[in-house]
Amino acid sequence: MKFLATRVVRFADCDPAGIVFYPQYLVMLNTLVEQWFDEGLRIPFAQYIGTRRTGLPTVRLEVDFTAISRHGDTLTQELGIEKLGRSSLVLRTQFKGGDELRLRVRQVLVCTSLETHLPQGFPDDVRLAMQPFLDQETPA
What is the pLDDT of residues 105-123, one digit of tens each? Predict the structure, then answer.
């Protein structure tokens, strides 16, 4: 299963040429992960970070920028899990404008304690909620 969301490219996302300034894609990616927790996993990300004092930093990021996105475009965002380990996961994400691939991402995140900043295993409820998104056919 994939988590799907849509996002409209805002003026604030763009450079003077009217296309998405590439670092803004990373902001969109982070927002998508939070949205996946809130809506897909049904675990509020604010509680995961705040109440539980559990972090989820990105430790590796591979991004292919395949086409430009313009102010006003609607992007379809698709997120799936390539691999789920004890304390880390590999996400595969893509953004499309219509049928055109705009961005392809492979992202490694690690579950950490915000007290020690060391890796720790995913909480059982989080791991269970992630299982349906573990898919052999994640976006390439």
Answer: 999 999 999 999 999 999 9
Residue 23, Cβ neighbours under 10 Å: how many?
Answer: 10
Enumerate the domain spans of the chain.
Answer: 3-133
Residue 109 DSSP SS3:
strand
17 class by beta-carbon count within 10 Å (0-12 exposed, 13-18 middle, 19+ buried): exposed
Binning the chain into helix, strand and coil, the percentages to the nearest 5 are 25, 40, 35
Q: Which residue has the tokens 């949205």?
A: 35
Q: Three-class SS of residue 49?
A: helix
pTM above 0.85, yes or no: yes
With beta carbons less than 8 A apart as the criterion, state whether 30 and 60 touch: no
CB contact set of 41 (below 8 Å; sequence gap of 6+): 126, 129, 130
Cα radius of gyration (the chain): 15
CATH fold for the domain made of 3-133: Thiol Ester Dehydrase; Chain A (3.10.129)
